[in-house]
Every structure is written in C-alpha cells, then in structure tokens.
Write a structure and sequence with these properties.
Oligomer: single chain
Shape: globular
Structural class: alpha+beta
Largest sheet: 4 strands, antiparallel
C-alpha cells in the first residue's frame, strides 16, 4: 500500500514474555514492529523516503491486527 518493497528477509526475535521484535529491511528504509503482550502494546516504526507513504503502511497494519487504539507520531528527519 505504501509502495515500499522488501530488500531482504525479516529478522524475527522471540522474547521470553511472548513478545516479538520484527525488523524488515525495505528499499532505502526499514520497518520494525515490537510487541509486548502483557501491556497489550505493539509499536511500529516506519522509516521511509519520499515518495513512499509510511502512514499507508501504518493504516494497513492497524487494520490487519484489529487495533483498538492507534496513536501515531510523524517526524521529519534530515
């Protein structure tokens, strides 16, 4: 949805508390997801270069995990 393409396989780390950390390299950027089941929390970090739209990636993921609440913060870097 955001136009980003994977440039390699994801790295998946399974934590003892049942949480996951997943890092996916994308063309010129990356996406990471960290889950904390005990806190019912998932944190998504999308680093994207123009013309890609990180908000579209967030929207797709939030729909697929059926998030009750989504809080987003966007920062311009550079």
């Amino acid at each position: 949805a955001s136009g980003m393409k994977a440039s390699g396989p994801p790295t998946v780390i399974v934590h003892p508390d049942g949480g996951l950390s997943v890092i996916l390299p994308l063309d010129g950027c990356h996406m990471s997801v960290h889950t904390m089941p005990a806190r019912e929390l998932a944190i998504l970090d999308v680093i994207a270069l123009p013309p890609h739209d990180p908000q579209r990636a967030l929207d797709v993921i939030a729909r697929r995990i059926t998030a009750r609440t989504v809080r987003a913060e966007q920062r311009t870097r550079g």
